[in-house]
Amino acid sequence: MTERVRGFTLIEVLVALAVLAIALAAAMKATSSSVSTAEEFRQRTLAGWVAQNRLNEMTARADFPVIGRTEGKEEQAGHSFTWRIETSASPNLSFRRLEISVYDSGNDQHALATLVSYLANAPH
């Protein structure tokens, strides 16, 4: 009596490879999404720091800005940002309302960070 050797058929091997390929593709997509989310969080954090820097500088100088719009550029951690400050009046004439928006350089359609604050007219 001869002993019969049983192995995997070609179809079984191909099915196993297809399942493995699908699993690896899903893992790559999840990793890519995670990296993208981390980068966006980094950009938003840096943009928030730029907005805080603008406000802190104006506070330290005791500025009482004129009503209108100011724009500028700032680098934070090796990345360039564009900031825009919209200054408006408040019901109390001794205060100015500031809305500081920070954008990725080259894309001023979507603010990465927005900070709203008030500055008082400090007596000199």
Q: How would you describe this protein?
A:
The protein is α+β, with helices and mostly antiparallel strands. It has a single domain (10-120), classed as GSPII I/J protein-like (Pantoate--beta-alanine Ligase, Chain: A,domain 2, 2-Layer Sandwich). It is 41% helix and 31% strand. Strands 1-2-3-4 form a four-stranded antiparallel sheet, with helices on one face. Strand 2 (79-89) and strand 3 (95-104) form a beta hairpin. The longest helix has 51 residues, at 10-60. The relative contact order is 0.14.
List keywords for this structure.
1 helix, 124 residues, 4 strands, alpha+beta, T2SS_GspI_C, four-stranded antiparallel sheet, rod-shaped, methylation, 41% helix, Pantoate--beta-alanine Ligase, Chain: A,domain 2
